[in-house]
Amino acid sequence: MALAATPGSQGGDRAARLWVLPAAGLALTVALATPVLVVLASVFVPTEGAWARLAALTLPQYIANTIWLLLGVGAGVLIVGVGTAWLVTMYRFPGSRACEWILLLPMAVPAYLLAYTYADVLQFTGPVQTSLRGWFGWHRGDYWFPEIRSAGGAIAVMTFVLYPYVYMLARAAFLEQSASVLEASRTLGQGAWRTFVRVALPLARPGIVAGLTLVFMEVLADFGTVKHFELATFTTGIYLTWFGLGSPIGAAKLAAGLLMVVLVVLGLEQRLRGARRFHRTSPRPVTPAAQRLGGAWGIGALVACLLPAAIGFFIPGGVLVQMSLIGGDAAVGRNFGRLAANTFGLAATTAGLAVLVAALIAYGVRVGRGALPRLAARVATLGYAVPGAVIAVGVMLPFGWLDNTIDAWMRSVFGRPTGLLLSGTVAALVFGYLVRFLAVAFTAVEAGLSRIRPSMEEVAQTLGHGPGSTLWRVHAPMMKGSLLTAALLVFVDTLKELPATLILRPFNFETLALRVYRLASDERLAQASTAALTIVGVGIIPVIVLSMAIARSPAIARSPATTRAQRSQGRP
Question: Comparing C-alpha atoms, which of 303, 219, 225 is closest to residue 262?
Answer without folding.
Answer: 219
